[in-house]
Design goal:
The complex is a heterodimer of chains A (304) and B (142). Chain A is 6% helix and 39% strand. With 304 residues, chain A is mostly beta strands. Chain A has 4 domains: 2-57, no CATH class; 64-144, Immunoglobulin-like, CATH 2.60.40; 154-245, Immunoglobulin-like; 255-304, no CATH class. In chain A, the strands form 5 sheets. In chain A, strands 1, 2, 3, 4, 5 and 6 form a 6-stranded antiparallel β-sheet that branches. Chain A has a 4-stranded antiparallel β-sheet with strand order 7-8-12-11, with no helix packed on it. Chain A has a 4-stranded antiparallel β-sheet with strand order 14-15-18-17, with no helix packed on it. With 142 residues, chain B is an all-beta fold. In chain B, strands 3, 4, 5, 6, 7, 8, 9, 10 and 11 form a 9-stranded mixed β-sheet that branches. A two-stranded antiparallel ribbon of chain B has the order 1-2. In chain B, strands 12-14 form a two-stranded antiparallel sheet. Chain B starts with a strand and ends with a strand. The chains are: A mainly beta (304), B mainly beta (142).
Chain lengths: 304, 142
C-alpha cells in the first residue's frame, strides 16, 4: 500500500524493485496540494524516501471530456468508441479506456478526441466507462461513467455455410455481444425462427450456435436477433451470413456410409473423414452415453 | 573421557577430540534484502570446510542486532559442496541489521561475522504530479 499525503494509492503490481499504483479516485483533492509518496510495507513499516524525489502534487490542469459515442466501422467490422473533449494528450500509450473494468484498444488520440476499438465488453449495454490519461482522470470524467450507450449486435460472418442435418456447431463473429448477453439468437430471416438449439457466447464477439436438427433451406439468410429485434448481416460479404442444412447436402443425417449402424462398446466405427468433421460432436456424445458395464448396443442420437 | 555419576567414576572408553580449527562463513550474497519479500541468500563457507555439505546438517538464522530475541530462521534450500556454498531462503523481517548464525550438525557453530541488512528504501517515482480526481498511475522505484 502506498499513500500520497492523506490519499491512498492502490497497488496494481509489484516486483522486487518497483511498485505500480493508481491514486485514489474516491475524493477530489484541492489543486496544488503536495504530499510525499509513502510506501507502507506489510511489516507495518514505512519505506523512507528522500525529498524531493517522492514529492507529488495534485493538479487541476487536466483534460476535459464531454461526450462518448459508439459507431460501427463497417470496413474493419468492429465497434469504435469516440470520446471527445479538450486538452487531450495525443498519446495513445498513456490513454486508457475501461468499460466495466476491461481495457479497450486505443487507436488514436488527438487534442480533442480519443478513439478506441471495442475489444472486450461483457454485454451490449456496456458497463460504466472510465477514461484515464497520463495525469489520471480528466475533468468531467463522470460524464461517461453512465454513458447509456447500447450496442446493436452486428453479425459479420459464420465460420460454416453448410451444416449437418443432425445439427452443427457454428461459430459466428457477432460484434456488440459478450458473455453476459442473454437472449441472443441466430434466426432464419424469412421465418424469424431461431436456427440454434443452444447459444453460447464464450467471449466478446464470439457466438457459438449449435443448430437445430432439421432442414434449413439453401440460400437462407441468417440474422442476429436480440431482445426481439432482428438485425441484418453487417459484414461486407453477405454470403458469410448464409446457411443451409439439407437432407441432400454434403453432410446428410443419413448414416448409410457408416458401417455398422449400431455398435457395441469399444467396437470400431468407420466414418469418412468429411463426415467425421461434421459428426464428431455427435459421436463424442454417443460414446459418453454408452455404459461400458452394460455392454448394450445403442443407436446414434439423430440417426440413422 | 572420565564420567562421574554420584561421585563414582564410571569406567569407559569414550574419547572426545577438541577441534582447534575454526571455520567461518566468508560472505553473504546479497548482503541487503527486502523486509517483505522472500529472497534467496547465498552464504559462502571457507573452501576447506571439512565436511561434505548436506542441506539437513545446517541450521541458519538471522538475529536482530538491536533485539537479540528477534530471530528469523532461514531454511537451507540448497547446498553446493564443490564450492562450499549454502543457499537459504530469507522470509522477511522488520527492518534492521541481522547477524547470521550458522550451525553444522557435526562441526558445531561456524564462526560468522556476516551481517544482513534488511531494509527497503524508495528512491524515486516516475511522475510528480497527477489529477485532482485521482486515477494517476505511478511507478515507485526502490
Amino acid at each position: 500500500m502506498g499513500s500520497i499525503g492523506s490519499l491512498n494509492c492502490y497497488v496494481i503490481s509489484t516486483n522486487s524493485t518497483t511498485i505500480v499504483c493508481r491514486t485514489d479516485e474516491s475524493r477530489t483533492m484541492t489543486p496544488a496540494t503536495t504530499g510525499d509518496v509513502v510506501v507502507f510495507l506489510k511489516t507495518s513499516e514505512e519505506s523512507p524516501c528522500e525529498k524531493p524525489n517522492c514529492e507529488f502534487t495534485y493538479t487541476s490542469n487536466v483534460p476535459t471530456i464531454s461526450t462518448m459515442q459508439a459507431n460501427f466501422d463497417s470496413t474493419a467490422n468492429v465497434y469504435k468508441l469516440m470520446v471527445t473533449g479538450t486538452s487531450f494528450s495525443g498519446d495513445t500509450s498513456t490513454t486508457e479506456l475501461y468499460i466495466g473494468g476491461k481495457l479497450q484498444k486505443c487507436d488514436e488520440v488527438t487534442d480533442t478526441s480519443a478513439t478506441f476499438t471495442v475489444t472486450d465488453i461483457s454485454d451490449e449495454k456496456m458497463a460504466s466507462a472510465k477514461l484515464y490519461f497520463d495525469l489520471g482522470l480528466p475533468d468531467s470524467h463522470s460524464s461517461i461513467t453512465g454513458h447509456g450507450l447500447t450496442l446493436e449486435p452486428k453479425l459479420i460472418s459464420m465460420n460454416i455455410q453448410d451444416g449437418s442435418l443432425g445439427g452443427s456447431l457454428i461459430t459466428a463473429n457477432v460484434q456488440g455481444v459478450g458473455p453476459s448477453t442473454s437472449g441472443f439468437e441466430l434466426v432464419d430471416s424469412s421465418s424469424g425462427s431461431s436456427i440454434c438449439k443452444s447459444v453460447n457466447i464464450p467471449s466478446y464477439g464470439v457466438v457459438e450456435c449449435t443448430t437445430i436438427a432439421s432442414e434449413i433451406a439453401e440460400g437462407t439468410t441468417i440474422q442476429a436477433k436480440l431482445s426481439g429485434t432482428a438485425y441484418d448481416c453487417a459484414g461486407s460479404d453477405a454470403t458469410l451470413c448464409q446457411y443451409k442444412q439439407l437432407s441432400t447436402g454434403t453432410y446428410p443425417m443419413s448414416l448409410q456410409p457408416i458401417s455398422p449402424q449400431e455398435v457395441w462398446y469399444s467396437q470400431e466405427l468407420t466414418l469418412l473423414p468429411q463426415q467425421l468433421t461434421r459428426l464428431e460432436p455427435l459421436i463424442v456424445a454417443f460414446m459418453r452415453t454408452q455404459s461400458p458395464s452394460t455392454q448394450q448396443p445403442k443407436s446414434l442420437p439423430h440417426g440413422p | 573421557m572420565t564420567i562421574i555419576v554420584n561421585n563414582l567414576t564410571v569406567t569407559n572408553t569414550l574419547s572426545l577430540t577438541l577441534r582447534n580449527e575454526i571455520k567461518s562463513g566468508v560472505s553473504i550474497t546479497p548482503s541487503s534484502v527486502s523486509p517483505v519479500l522472500k529472497q534467496n541468500v547465498t552464504i559462502q563457507l571457507e573452501t576447506d570446510f571439512p565436511y561434505t555439505l548436506n542441506r539437513d546438517d545446517f541450521t541458519v538464522n538471522a538475529t536482530s542486532e538491536t533485539n537479540s530475541t528477534y530471530i528469523r530462521y532461514m531454511n537451507v534450500i540448497d547446498v553446493d559442496d564443490a564450492n562450499k556454498r549454502l543457499v537459504c531462503k530469507f522470509g522477511g523481517a522488520y527492518s534492521g541489521m541481522f547477524s547470521i548464525r550458522i550451525r553444522h550438525a557435526k562441526f558445531g557453530l561456524i564462526k560468522s561475522t556476516l551481517l544482513l541488512d534488511v531494509s527497503a528504501n524508495t528512491t524515486s517515482i516516475d511522475k510528480n504530479r497527477g489529477s485532482i480526481y485521482g486515477g494517476t498511475l505511478i511507478t515507485i522505484t526502490g
